[in-house]
What we know:
The protein has one domain: Barwin-like endoglucanases (Beta Barrel), CATH 2.40.40.10. It has three helices and six strands, in the order αβββββαβα. A hairpin with a 6-residue loop joins strand 3 and strand 4. By secondary structure, the chain is α/β, with parallel strands linked by helices. It is 28% helix and 30% strand. The protein has a six-stranded mixed beta barrel.
Amino acid sequence: xxxxxxxxxxxxxxxxxxxxxxxxxxxxxxxxxxxxxxxxxxxxxxxxxxxxxxxxxxxxxxxxxxxxxxxxxxxxxxxxxxxxxxxxxxxxxxxxxxxxxxxxxxxxxxxxxxxxxxxxxxxxxxxxxxxxxx
Length: 134
């Protein structure tokens, strides 16, 4: 077998069977004020305070994020459906429901751990969160 062929197989194996959670980082997050409830977002969807959505400065609409509060270990999955002003200090603006589940409401803003999820990791993490919340 050629070296290129073996490297190609290793690449396919690595991308198929490895963790599908990408770019974990700690970012500064806030949450939407109640006055935005039912208003249109940049993606055209309506912001619903009971939905698990967020605004981000650059990530594509429809990107799913795993957001974790390192202080209490709570996690939520949110979908990017809005944009934030580039000049804001915060890097993520969470829906009220997501912020409430993470314990962010009382403090207003804080650093949270955020990871981008692909389709495989999204399905696995949703199932894991459903089981742990029962």
